[in-house]
Design a protein that fits this description.
Helix content: 10-25%
Bound molecules: copper (II) ion
Largest sheet: 4 strands, mixed
Structural class: alpha/beta
CATH superfamily: Cupredoxins -  blue copper proteins
Shape: globular
Distance between the termini: 35 Å
Number of strands: 8
Oligomer: single chain
CATH architecture: Sandwich
Number of domains: 1
Order of helices and strands: HEEEEEEEEHH
Length: 143
Amino acid sequence: MKKSLFTLLVLAAAPAFAANHEVKMLDNGKDGNMVFEPAFVNAKPGDTVTFIPTHKGHWVQSKAVPAGAKDFLSKENEKFTVKLDKEGVYVYTCPPHRMMNMSGVIQVGKATNKAKAQAAADELDKRAMQNKGRLKKYMQMVK
Ligand SMILES: [Cu+2]
C-alpha cells in the first residue's frame, strides 16, 4: 500500500523532470555543411527541443509528426522551442537548405508513426542534391 502510493507520487512528479534538448542550426558541423546538431534526438514525452540559430539563415519546418501533434514552422534566425507531447517520430527540415539535406529526426517515446516518418525521410533524401543519405542514417537510430 505504502509502496504503491510512493509510485503514484513519483509518476505525478515526472513532468517536473522534463528535459530540454538543444539542437544547433549550423552552416558547418561534424556531419558536413548545412546541418542540425545533433540531428537525431531521443526524447521523452513532455520534453522540449530548442533550435538554436548558431549560424544565420536557418529555420525549421516539420515534415512528419505523430498523430495529434501540431506541425511547426519557425522564423529565420530565431530561437524556437517545440513541446513534444505526443509519442512518435518527428521529421523536420530547414526550408532554404532542404536541397542540402539540412533535416533532422526526433524520437519521442515509442515510434508510433514510424512508417509515415520513414516516408517523409525517404522523400527528403531522394530530393536532396547534397548530403544524401543523412535521413536514412538518422532514421536507423529510431528504435
Ligand atoms: Cu538551413
